[in-house]
Every structure is written in structure tokens, then in C-alpha cells.
Write a structure and sequence with these properties.
The structure holds 2 protein chains of 2 kinds. By secondary structure, chain A is α/β, with parallel strands linked by helices. Chain A has 2 domains: 1-83 and 167-263, Rossmann fold, CATH 3.40.50; 92-165, no CATH class. Helices cover 34% and strands 23% of the residues of chain A. In chain A, a hairpin with a 2-residue loop joins strand 1 and strand 2. In chain A, helix 3 crosses helix 4 (126-135), helix 3 (99-110) packs parallel to helix 5 (151-162) and helix 5 runs parallel beside helix 6. Chain A is globular, with a radius of gyration of 19 Å. Chain B has helices at 2-32, 39-56, 59-89, 94-116, 142-164, 166-176, 178-183, 188-208, 220-235, 240-260, 266-279, 308-322, 324-327, 330-355, 364-379, 385-391, 393-407, 412-432, 434-437, 450-453, 455-477, 480-490, 492-496, 502-528, 538-551, 558-576, 580-594, 598-611, 620-627; strands at 132-135, 138-141, 443-444, 530-531. In chain B, a hairpin with a 2-residue loop joins strand 1 and strand 2. In chain B, helix 10 crosses helix 11. Chain B is globular. Classes of the chains: A alpha/beta, B mainly alpha. Chains A and B meet through helix 2, helix 3 and helix 5 of A and helix 22, helix 23 and helix 29 of B.
């Protein structure tokens, strides 16, 4: 890991709703090419944290820096222009457009051609859109109406959209929620592969511990708004506090992990 | 000083009725999510029924009994409407609900004239409140004092009803989560019906209580509904306290606005509304709405540019239309030119509605502004026709730029209500600012120059402009801008997170739509040789909505077919019957209930099913529910 400017630096991020502290003084860093998981029980503040990172939500205090540039309180569209892609827990795509058109819109925005009133969209950035579809394994789906896609395919499409502006950082909120077990593994392998190849930093939240322990380089554990642990999967797994409040309560990871065997 | 105090009290008294109607609208919206356009019609019915009853029943008991009985009778009519019509459209898109209840309004307007006649009716004074109270030499009608007391009493009673009764708790629960209440075993149907009955009762009571103050007439429904929309936009839809505060605010602004700007007092209300919307887009007491539902139940067929065969067919159809002057007389050419103009108007609204997902209920404002733009340029500046036609629509563009900047901050029903209120303000300026606009008399003598004067030449002009405008809008629909606009309609969340400044895109689209509507209006001014405030009236706005719906809101060419069929039918209908509003109202309700896809929508889905032998396209609603 380089010691230069971090891809993402978060310092003392806080947000409260009324008297409830959703996120309390959270600080962490993320380097290029690193895959970082943010885990925690329901209501721990993961989504609030995420929404503040891409500008969907404004923090009460704290600083967010992306590649040396402060983005605290900036709008999602401005954060995106810095090279931050985002996928959503509940997929957000354009159901009345075809799969290719969904990506073309993102490409057109990236190339700042949104106010082009005359050129037919059909030919614009078509090759690049198909390349992205190919990358996520959806080459055959270009002409399909997006509203017809199965849920797992929508998740892959979101990944392709998020990659459209050559992001440096991907924020993925529960990328595999609602997917079948095999699809989960495939999607995360794909994401990890792309991240390594293009040196993209990935921050993701996830409930499936198999996915987390298989792919994350480091793990952040959030509970009641505060970071209670961070470190490598092995360190986090060994942390007693984490086991007590989170991992220890259920059979969330398989016996192999519990015996302390290497992942 | 005393004068201002009395003026203040007059404002408070007017607020009472406005509050009753607005709170009824808010209560109905809270539970059923329907913005009941027909609320003004129920208000008017309350006034008419109360008038008839008070004429027949004498004495104090007769008068006050009549007021209450009138409200109960109208509430019963409301229950009937809810059970027969609204129950069928609770799951329809909000645009359809607004239109269906507008159709009801049209029907009631004609029925009222049929039953009570077209003349203003002056009701009895209220027994016990006939006199006036002297206040430092100024008279205050004692009935006003009664109304001033009534407002807070009703507010308190509603508060008790919703906080202290089992029924009220159910209603509040349903306001937060309808489906959960239904899952808990509450009979949702009757809950909705009773809520609707209460809302209509309040509206009718508001109308009945007006008869000692104001004459009863058959246009009072639209006047009140616009004020009520302004009140709920300021106060926040769904909030009863908000309705009260905003009703007082708007009434006081009206009372004092008359003193400040005697001719255009509505401007003051508009300015306050604009400020409120900038500071608190969901009203003073409102909460941010969940994103509007998207047209569920309609099958999604992806839009495609025309194939070369289709393009040839369109050109052939245009060439065919251009032959009309060789086979028909002047009347048919006039009708043809009018239809061509309405194709422009409908296409401009369609662009905003279908591509942008922004259903404007006041699109006629920009059509009318284009017409007045031509009238000012031709009559005051004396410019030649071609210059007027080119520059006149810019007035529509300017209006769209100003109003659109506010309107696009909102979406769904708020957007619809706000655009309607703006259009009504523009209309009232044209109506009241007599020195410039000629008021009700309009501006006359706008005849085309020689080159376009003959019916055949004017027809070709209108047809040509229409073809150019429709093609340009189609080009934009399939351009990156058109896709960005659709992207905002489909998913604002996704759009914002891929760098799209959605509000600016929508604002630009609003200006494009306003400008093209203005082009239609400019031609219309020359076709009719005159402009009138009605060129920007509500009924024209609704005509455009019906054209778009009739053609098919989910299709690209829907507006063209909708405009042709609707306008031809309309012209024929007006020549056949005096009850055109009644027929039109029934027609609108029927489209919404049995034919929501429109002409082109039905044709397209039949063709799509043939092409893809096995129908794959699932209803969008099912997909979206599945995704959540």
C-alpha cells in the first residue's frame, strides 16, 4: 500500500437524527485497489454512512476526502464526477430503457453530452456500452428491456453503470442482497477481479459473512454508529467484542472459520 | 387603523370556508392518496343544495338545518362517487386520478346549470347574524364574526376526532401505511369511503356556509379549487393544521392584496407561495413524500426511433394531409388548421408528460402566452406576421422559464397543482389587467397577412409548422437530452448518482415544452384573429391532457393521434349538443377507467404481442414490487 494520499479518507464522521446517533465519529481510510467491507448488525449505521460518502446525505460533522479533495456535503452528481461509482441496496435503474441504453445514459453524462438535443442516441457510445456489458458478462442482454431483467442481472447491470465513468472508487451498498448463493459468489468474484485489474478501491456493506471473509482485504465493524473494530479478516474474526455483539450470536460463518483455519 | 383591522377580520372570515374545503382535500389525500379535483364541485353542490333548502325551509331552525342537511346530502353523493368510480382507480397513476376527478367536475358544472340555471343565485341572510357590529365607525357583518369563530372550532373538532376516536386512530394509521392497516384486518374499503365522506362533507359545508356572503354561481368550483390548491401547497398536503394556517395566510393576502395591487391581487399570493416553495418545498407543515409511483400496470415497450418504412409512411400521411385544400371547402380547412395547431399543443405537453414524467395541469398558460405574445407584437409594436410568429412564442418561453424554475422543484401531484395554480394566475392577469390585455374583451383584429390569409395557405402553414415541431420534439426524445429527461422520470436516485443535474434537465424540458406550446398559441391567434383569456384557461389545459391520454401517454406518437381524434370529436360535439361539458366529463372518466393505454398504446401492444409470439413483458408494477 502506498503511503501517499489515500483514495478515500474519512475523519470523525457523525450524523444524528433527533436524539439518535446514527453514526458517531467514524474514521477510516481506503487505498487504491483495496477492497474494504463495512459490516454491522441492522441499524448499525452502515447505510447512513454510505449515503454520506456519496453525498446522498449531509453529515453533521466530520470530513470526507476523495483523492485529496474534500467532498463533505457535496451533491451526489459532483462526487460522481470525481470518479466515485455507486450501486444501491435496492437497484436503481431505468426500467423503460433497454440494458444498453441504461449504460449509454451514464456514458453520455460522463462525456458531458447531456444537452445534445439532436444526435440520435442509438449510435452514441454504443461500442463502449457493449464493452462494459461484456465485462460484467451481459453481452447478450443489450437489447432487452431493463424492466424484464431478473434481480441478479439488475445488480450486474448496476455494476456496469457504476463502471461507466472509469471510477477510482466504488461504493456498493449490499451488492449481493436478494441474490441466490451462487450468484453472490459470482458477482463478488467479478467485482474483485475488476477492482484488482483497474486498481479501483471498493467499499461495500454486506450481511453475508462468506462473501465478506472471502473478498475483503480489510473489514470495518460498525455497531450503534461507532466503529468498534477494523483490521484484516483474521483480526476481526478474533476480536472478542465483535464476536460478542455480532458474529458470536449466530452461525454466521462456517465452522472452518471458527476453528481459526486460514481463510 | 380601524379600517385595516376590519379588513383583517374580513380576511379571517373568508379563511373559514377555504379552511373547510382545504382540510377536506387534505384528509382525503392523506388516506387515499387521491388529490380530489372534484372537491370544488362538491363545494359548489353544497352551496346550490343549501340554497334550494333554505328557500323552502323557513325560520332559524330551517336555515341552519338546511346548511347541515345540504352538507350531508352532498356527502352522500360523495359516497356514491367513491364507491362507483374512485374504488376502481385507487391503484392507477395519480395523473389518471386527477383527470377522472376533473371529469367529474365538468359533469357537475353542466348538471348544475341544467338544474339551477345559469344565473347567479342570491341566498338568504343567516337568521341571528343579519346585522353588523360597529367598530370605531366601521361595520363588521356579524356573520363574519360567526365564521371567524367557526374555523378554530372545526380545527379543534377535527383534532379531537383524529386523536381521541378509534376511527381517527385508524385513519392516522392508514395515512402512514395503508397496506399495514389492511393487513391488520381493518376493512379498508369502508375506511376509505368514510374518509371520503368526511372530506366531501367539509367541502359542502364550506360551500353552504358561503351563501349568506356570496352569490351562488356555476363557476365557483374552479375558483375555489385553485385557491385550495394554493392553500395545500403552502400548508402542506395532508396536514390539517397546515391547511388552517395557510387558509388564513392566503385569505389575509387576498384581503390586503386588494389594497396594494387592486387589479392583480393574486400576484401577492403567488409571491408568497413561491417563497414558501423555495424554503420548504413540501409546504409549511407537510412532510416530504415518498417518490411518486410510476404508471403501474402498463406494459413497457421500449421506445424506438422510426424505422425507414415507418418514416416513409409518416411522410406519405403528411403528403396526404397536404392534399386537403384540393378536395374540401373553407370550413374543413379551418378545422384542419385548428387540428394541426392542437397537434403542436398536445405534442408539447406530451414531451413534458411522457418523456419527462411531469404532468402539467396548466400547460395552456404557455399556449396562451404565445398567443398574447403575437397580439402584443402585432398590435402594439406593429411588426410583420412572420416576425410575430417567430418572436411571439418567446413569451411562452419566458413564462415557462419563470414558472418552470419553481415547478420542477416538485413532482407528482404537487407539480400538477402548482402548474395549475400558475396557469390560473396567468389567466387572471390576462383577465384583470384590462389596460394591457383588454381583459375579457381580449385583443381583436389579428388577421394573417396576404400570403397566409386564404384558408388553404393558412392550413398549409399550420400543417408545415406542426410537422416541423413534431419532428423536432421526436428528435429531442431520442437524443441524449431526451434520454437524460427519461432517466430523471425513471429513477431520480440513479440519475443524480451518475452526474445528471436532474432539475436543470427538467427545467430545460419545461422551457422547450412551453416554447413549442407558444408556437401553437401564436398560430392559434392568427387562426382566430383574436386572443382571449380563455386561450390560457383550465379547460384548454385539460383538453391537452385528454389528448395525450387518449393517444397514449406511454407511447411516442400518442399525442398526434390523440389530438386529431379528440379535436375532431370535440368540434363535432359542440355543434351537436349544449351539454358538451357533461359529455366530455363522461368521456374522460371512461378513458381513465376502461381505456388507460390510449389509442396508440393499444395498437402498439397488439403489434408487440404479434411480433414477440410469447408475451414476455410483465407489468412494470409487478417488477418494481418484486424488486423491493
Amino acid at each position: 500500500m502506498s503511503l501517499g494520499v489515500s483514495l478515500l479518507a474519512v475523519e470523525g464522521l457523525s450524523k444524528s437524527y433527533g436524539g439518535i446517533h446514527a453514526v458517531r465519529s467514524v474514521s477510516f481510510m481506503l487505498q487504491a485497489g483495496e477492497i474494504l467491507a463495512l459490516i454491522g448488525p441492522n441499524g448499525a449505521g452502515k447505510s447512513t454512512c454510505f449515503d454520506m460518502l456519496n453525498g446522498q446525505n449531509v453529515p453533521d460533522s466530520g470530513r470526507i476526502t476523495v483523492m485529496g479533495e474534500e467532498t463533505t456535503g457535496r451533491k451526489p452528481r459532483d462526487v460522481w464526477r470525481l470518479g466515485v461509482g455507486r450501486t444501491f441496496q435496492i437497484t436503481a435503474t431505468y426500467p423503460t430503457m433497454t440494458v444498453r441504453e441504461n449504460i449509454q445514459v451514464a456514458l453520455v453524462s460522463h462525456h458531458r453530452r447531456l444537452y445534445d438535443l439532436w444526435s440520435p442516441m442509438i449510435g452514441i457510445e454504443r461500442g463502449e456500452a457493449d464493452r462494459l456489458l461484456d465485462l460484467v458478462g451481459m453481452a447478450g442482454y443489450a437489447e432487452r428491456p431493463c424492466g424484464e431483467l431478473a434481480y441478479g442481472d439488475l445488480k450486474r447491470l448496476e455494476l456496469a453503470i457504476a463502471l461507466a465513468n472509469h471510477p477510482k472508487l466504488l461504493l456498493m451498498d449490499e451488492p449481493t442482497a436478494g441474490m441466490a448463493p451462487r450468484e453472490r459468489v459470482e458477482l463478488m468474484r467479478l467485482t474483485a477481479k475488476i477492482a484488482r485489474e483497474q486498481s479501483i478501491g471498493v467499499l461495500f456493506t454486506e450481511h453475508d459473512m462468506d462473501v465478506v471473509f472471502e473478498h475483503a482485504d480489510r473489514i470495518l465493524v460498525l455497531n450503534r454508529g461507532s466503529l468498534i473494530a477494523q483490521g484484516s479478516p483474521a483480526e476481526v474474526r478474533a476480536n472478542r467484542e465483535v464476536q460478542a455483539i455480532y458474529l458470536g450470536e449466530g452461525l454466521l460463518y462456517d465452522a472452518r472459520h471458527r476453528e481459526g483455519a486460514p481463510a | 387603523m380601524a379600517f385595516y383591522f376590519v379588513q383583517f377580520l374580513t380576511g379571517l372570515a373568508s379563511a373559514a370556508s377555504l379552511f373547510l374545503v382545504a382540510s377536506g382535500l387534505s384528509i382525503i389525500f392523506g388516506v387515499t392518496r387521491i388529490v380530489n379535483f372534484a372537491h370544488g364541485a362538491f363545494y359548489m353542490l353544497g352551496a346550490y343544495v343549501a340554497f334550494s333548502l333554505t328557500e323552502r325551509l323557513s325560520g332559524a331552525f330551517g336555515f341552519w338545518g338546511s346548511i347541515v342537511v345540504a352538507a350531508v346530502v352532498v356527502a352522500a353523493i360523495g359516497v356514491f362517487v367513491e364507491m362507483v368510480l374512485l374504488r376502481r382507480i385507487y391503484h392507477a397513476p395519480e395523473l389518471f386520478q386527477l383527470l377522472a376527478t376533473f371529469g367529474l367536475t365538468l359533469m357537475v358544472e353542466d348538471l348544475v346549470v341544467l338544474i339551477w340555471g345559469p344565473d347567479d343565485l342570491v341566498g338568504r341572510r343567516a337568521p341571528g347574524f343579519k346585522g353588523a357590529v360597529d367598530f370605531f365607525g366601521q361595520n363588521i357583518p356579524s356573520y363574519d364574526l360567526f365564521l371567524i369563530a367557526l374555523g378554530p372550532i372545526v380545527l379543534g373538532a377535527l383534532w379531537l376526532l383524529f386523536q381521541r376516536t378509534r376511527w381517527g386512530i385508524l385513519v392516522r394509521a392508514a395515512t402512514q401505511d395503508r397496506d399495514m392497516v389492511a393487513a391488520l384486518g381493518v376493512n379498508q374499503k369502508w375506511l376509505f369511503t368514510s374518509v371520503f365522506a368526511l372530506g366531501v362533507f367539509l367541502a359542502a359545508l364550506g360551500g353552504a356556509l358561503q351563501i349568506p356572503r356570496d352569490a351562488v354561481h356555476h363557476a365557483m368550483d374552479l375558483r375555489i379549487i385553485v385557491e385550495v390548491f394554493v392553500v395545500v401547497v403552502i400548508g402542506g398536503l395532508g396536514s390539517i393544521l397546515g391547511a388552517f394556517v395557510a387558509a388564513v395566510l392566503v385569505s389575509e393576502l387576498n384581503a390586503f392584496g386588494i389594497l396594494v395591487f387592486p387589479t392583480i391581487s393574486l400576484i401577492l399570493v403567488f409571491l408568497v407561495m413561491a417563497v414558501v416553495l423555495v424554503v420548504r418545498p413540501w409546504g409549511l407543515f407537510g412532510k416530504k413524500e415518498a417518490p411518486a409511483r410510476r404508471t403501474p400496470g402498463l406494459t413497457v415497450i421500449p421506445w424506438r426511433p422510426l424505422s425507414s418504412v415507418e418514416r416513409l409512411a409518416s411522410l406519405a400521411a403528411l403528403a396526404f394531409a397536404a392534399m386537403l385544400p384540393f378536395v374540401s371547402g373553407n370550413y374543413a380547412l379551418n378545422v384542419g388548421a385548428e387540428i394541426a395547431i392542437f397537434v403542436i399543443f398536445a405534442a408539447s405537453l406530451h414531451f413534458l408528460m411522457a418523456v419527462g414524467g411531469l404532468a402539467s395541469f396548466g400547460h395552456a398558460a404557455y399556449f396562451g402566452l404565445g398567443a398574447y405574445g403575437v397580439a402584443f407584437l402585432a398590435k402594439i409594436a406593429g411588426l410583420p406576421m412572420i416576425v410575430c410568429l417567430l418572436l411571439g412564442p418567446l413569451l411562452g418561453a419566458a413564462g415557462a422559464a419563470v414558472f418552470g424554475a419553481f415547478a420542477v422543484q416538485l413532482s407528482g401531484v404537487y407539480f400538477a397543482m402548482l402548474t395549475l395554480a400558475f396557469a390560473q394566475i396567468v389567466w387572471s392577469i390576462a383577465f384583470q389587467w384590462v389596460a394591457v390585455t383588454g381583459g375579457d374583451n381580449g385583443i381583436l383584429g389579428l388577421w394573417p397577412e396576404k400570403w397566409a390569409a386564404s384558408p388553404s395557405h393558412f392550413y398549409w402553414l399550420a400543417l408545415g409548422v406542426s410537422a416541423v415541431v413534431v419532428s423536432a420534439l421526436r428528435l429531442i426524445t431520442f437524443s441524449p437530452f431526451g434520454y437524460a429527461l427519461r432517466a430523471m422520470r425513471d429513477s431520480p436516485l440513479r440519475s443524480e448518482s451518475i452526474g445528471i443535474n436532474g432539475k436543470r434537465i427538467q427545467w430545460t424540458a419545461f422551457i422547450i415544452a412551453g416554447t413549442t406550446a407558444g408556437i401553437g398559441g401564436a398560430l392559434f391567434a392568427y387562426l382566430k384573429g383574436s386572443v382571449f383569456p380563455d386561450n390560457m384557461g383550465i379547460s384548454l389545459s385539460v383538453d391537452a391532457l385528454v389528448m395525450v391520454l387518449l393517444g397514449g401517454v406511454e407511447t411516442v406518437p400518442g399525442a398526434i393521434f390523440g389530438a386529431i381524434v379528440y379535436k375532431a370529436l370535440n368540434i363535432w360535439l359542440v355543434s351537436q349538443t349544449d351539454l358538451s361539458k357533461l359529455v366530455l366529463g363522461i368521456f374522460i372518466v371512461l378513458i381513465v377507467v376502461v381505456f388507460p393505454k390510449g389509442i396508440v398504446g393499444v395498437v402498439e401492444s397488439v403489434m408487440h404481442r404479434r411480433r414477440t409470439a410469447a408475451p414476455k413483458a410483465a407489468p412494470l408494477s409487478a417488477k418494481m414490487e418484486g424488486a423491493q
